[in-house]
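Hey,

Quick one before I head out. I ran the complex with 2-acetamido-2-deoxy-beta-D-glucopyranose overnight. Inputs first:
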Amino acid sequence: MQSRVGSSGNLEEGKDSVVRNASQSKPLSLKLFMFLLVFLVVGFVFSAVSMYTIRYFGLHNVVQIAQSRFQPCFQRPVSLEGLISPSSNAWHGMNDSELFWRSSLVPKVKNYPFKRTPKIAFMFLARGPLPMAPLWEKFFKGNEDLYSIYIHSLPSYKPDFPQSSVFYERNIPSQAVEWGRMSMCDAERRLLSNALLDISNEWFVLLSESCIPLLNFKIVYHYIAKSRYSFMGAFDEPGPFGRGRYHDRMSPEVKKSQWRKGSQWFEVNRKLAVDIISDAHYYPKFEKFCRPACYVDEHYFPTMLSIESPQLLANRTTTYVDWSRGGAHPATFGKADITEHLFKRISGRCTYNDQPTTHCFLFARKFSPNALAPLLENSSKFLGF
Ligand SMILES: *[C@@H]1O[C@H](CO)[C@@H](O)[C@H](O)[C@H]1NC(C)=O
Ligand SMILES: *[C@@H]1O[C@H](CO)[C@@H](O)[C@H](O)[C@H]1NC(C)=O
Ligand SMILES: CC(=O)N[C@H]1CO[C@H](CO)[C@@H](O)[C@@H]1O
């Protein structure tokens, strides 16, 4: 206490003495003038010498090195944190080439030096709003460490999810998409790339705005996490809508016997996601020769992955869709369709980890917005959550 009071008192005294000196005799200011003159001359000589040495001995390198040595003082120290903690906002400033390059980086050391809880990335490919959002909110509730969400919508669409929503700030930088064109695959790759930025995302599910979950989160998570295979639909279909869409000039990268077809709505693991976004071998062929009416989104990933990693594929999708009504588009389920009968009907015959099962589907489409209310009301009965 005392010393603090004392020192501030000294400062006050110093101020007083400066004021007094200013009005004192001339010899002192002459001395000061001489001192400044000497200082100026020394400074001039020094700068002349240093200019000379820089010009003739290239000493500017020394200056540069000295500068670069100082830089780390002004930057944040390197840490793992920035790489492993995902950003709460899915938006970023990277363009596609920067994003795809960044998300193709794969660690070579297999053991993580931190606790990594593998998550499912739910990737919504939508035009604009997500009419089924309240049902998804209910589905996700209580499983916060096990999922992440990404939305690709029309670039003009302005999302308006409230801050409390799981969809808040989950829109990624997006571009226009045309049905059945390469821009559709580009959007899917863009979603995968964004989801790959989060090192904890291990499985990647593509969904549309008309999709709903058919089971509760725990069952869905377990089903995907315990599967030996990724759920990419891939089959060889003779006839005009299968092999008929193959173009001879896609050879030798893709032979006719390697041509596959499958549902656009897939689930892939991290390895396959990286393979998809870093592919430069098959992409040009599909872009050039799979043109309408080829529907590239039904062929590119199934064909490419069937050639590269057939042993990793279940060759089926887990997203149910009803083609029984015929026509070019599948059936849409509305309010009147939301009955116990519908969900009993959604079963099939398939294999899970090489065992036959009737539990083939985790998601279903297409549901119209007016189906939301009866689904929400009866979700515990029909969907188990
Ligand atoms: C992304 O930005 C980089 C650097 O400005 C540029 O070289 C590259 O062509 C851009 N890529 C795209 C797809 O716009
Ligand atoms: C999927 O199909 C490929 C051939 O394209 C095959 O090698 C693979 O074993 C199939 N997967 C399963 C789970 O049967
Ligand atoms: C098909 C069905 O069971 N619908 C039910 C959904 O929930 C509402 C409200 O609880 C019931 O009135 C419906 O019968």
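Residues 27-57 form the longest helix (31 residues).

Talk tomorrow,
K.
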